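Journal club prep — side note

Before the paper discussion, L.F. wants everyone to see what a predicted structure for a comparable chain looks like in token form. Sequence:
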Amino acid sequence: MIRSSIFYSETYKEIERRIADFLNSQPEFLSARTVGSPRAVGDAIQNLLSDHFQAILGGLCVKYSRDFARRSMADLAFSDTEGLYYIVDVKTHRLDTSFNMPNLTSVERLARLYEDDANWFVVLMIKYSLAGNTVVVEGCHFVPIEFLSWDCLTIGALGWGQIQIANANTINIVEGNSRRAWMLQLCDTILDFYPREIAKIGGRMEHFERVKARWLERTE
């Protein structure tokens, strides 16, 4: 397993500080129209970070990309001096909302990405409040997905299965966690999840068999 010197040192915490300081140093960038929409605020924060993230990384970044399709795993991506490749998924969470369950990525796409140890899927979570039209960043996580404890993650029934943060108000970080251990937990979680989904589908099929039977009894 190739260990990233960014995440298996204090470097990622310094990046977190730089991100928070950068966003909090920006002049007001929201309008009265966008400030009430968490999606619009999230897009504004992501666009601002996209424009400046390479500078925030500084000498850690060798190659930087910011143009990805909406459904891509990445919002940003970069390669470091060790030849490792980082896909960054930017998430935002407004702290005065009671519940938020953001999607991270498909279990199948992550499994394919992690076939190469040089690839990293990184979650950049910005936690913010609002003071008028001004974003106030009160917390920031910049961590590989394997640092997210499974007690704050869940699987959503979309495609092969979608990894989700169960509640963005509670994110538990396991510093220095092993990718191997995390991926084995992912496999156990999925192998427990699929049989439950099969049982649900069986129940739905039985329901529509009954619906079909009722409609067969009817005349035109």
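L.F.'s comment for the group: The chain has four helices and eight strands. Keep this in mind when we get to the figures.
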